[in-house]
Each structure stands twice: as structure tokens, then as C-alpha cells.
Write a structure and sequence with these properties.
Length: about 300
Amino acid sequence: MIIIEIVHLLASIILIYVKSLIHLIFGKPRKDISGQVAVVTGAGHGLGRELALELSHKGAKVALLDINKPGVDKVDHEIKSTGGVSCSYQCDVTSQTDVQKVFNQIGDNLGPIDILINNAGITHCTPFMDLTPQQIRKTFEVNTLSHFWTISSVLPGMIARERGHIVAISSIAGLLGTPNVVEYCASKFAVNGLMTSLEKEIHANGANNNVHLTTICPLIMDTGMFKKPKTRFNSLLPICSPSDVAKTAIDSMLKNDSIITVPQSAMAIYRIEKIVPEEAAQKVQDWLDYGVGSHKSD
């Protein structure tokens, strides 16, 4: 009967709130990833390097992917010099063929992939009217389409083994638009949509009790990608360090969080913006003066 179904639904929701309250008070439990195989794209520098080092610190065997082979070789040496296990691979994540070939090599060298962190990303910091078709395509190929190639390479195995975690390094730009990075924002909005809908699809197929997805949305980072970051209130909307973002990202993965911002206080700003009048939200954005300047004059 529909009444019994409603009672069961309400009871389930109440239990979820109780569980959330317990986690709020005592914190979420963290899972152990020691010995698991983790892949990090864009691992040759910046946030990718920090993510790889943090994973190794947690005991994972790390596969380092980047189109810049000297960069990942250097990170590989760093990890091995501290007793960690890693392998480095040159990989063009925009090529489905290259991704599949490298992921097969990882399976042969390290074993089945348990964790995938899609971190590779680019932007041009160029006003929309000055973007070329080639720049727009390249941004989407690296920032968005590559997720499809990497995820399709690992997801079937994760579901079959009933274990796995996929992490997307998105951006606050995937939640809130900003000038001078329109193509970047659009690519990150697409990543958020991919992760949200894929999580629902996995849930519908009954696999997401064991295969988890996490989307990380940091504020602007001082990695060099954005040459002209700006913030009026650094304590409220800071320019983040890659190290801090990596630690938060890995900790969120260990807790099986679904989506977070870095810092997590930025999520409150995002949610407030969605419930106030659009004109008011724009006034607040203008007042905060947070974003990036164009690289056009460089």
C-alpha cells in the first residue's frame, strides 16, 4: 500500500538525518586505501603532484599521468625516494586510444585500478569574444571529454570487483560563472553534470554502495594556471594553495563525500546565491570582486 511505502520512506529519511547528525558531531569514518592502485591525471605539477604525494602518504600505489613526461618522472622520483610505490606514464588524456593503452599498462604494472582522480585541466583566461574555436575545443577535450575516456576505462572493472572511487577535480567555476574564463567555466559545469548524473545512474543500477564518486570544487589556486587571480577578502574567498586543496580532496574521498568546495565555506556562498534574486547575487559578486584577469595583454 502507498501508506506503508510513505512510512518506510519517511523512516529512511529520518535515519539519514540521524546518521548525518552523528557524523556532524563525531566526524565521518575514513576508509583505508593502503595497497590500492590510484591514477592521477595531470600529475606532473601543481595540484596533480600534491594529490599524488598525498595518495602515496596514505599508502596507495600511484600511477602518474601527464603529457609532460619529465614532470611525472620527477614526481615519480619524489614518491620512490620516500619509499612509496609509483609509475609514471606520458599520456594524452584527450586521446581515447592513448588513455586505453596507458591504463592497460597500469594494470600490468601495478594491478587493477581502484581510484581514479581526473585532475588534468587547462584554461586560456581570455574574454569570450577573443577565444578561438581551437582554444574552446582544446579546453573541452582536456577538461571534460577526457573524463569520459578515463572513466569508461576503469568503471566496468570497479563495478565487477565491487570496489572503486572516481574523483573529479572540478572548480568553483563549475558552480558559479565568472568573466574571462567562460570556456573553462562551461567545461567545469559539464564535469559537475557528468559526475552528478553518473552517480545517479550507478545508483539506479545498484552498484554505488561500493563504487563512489566525489567532485571537488576548489576556489582559485596559485598553481600558475591563473596568472592574474584577484580577491578582495582573502579570509573569506582565499587564493588556495595546491597542498591544502589536495589534503582536503583526499580526505573527502576517504569519507566518500559526494561534492565539496575548498574551502568548504564557499558552498554556503553558492547555496545562498541560488536563493536570492539574481540581481542581488550579481551585486554581491561585484562587491566581493573575486575572479581572474585576462591573460590577453601578456
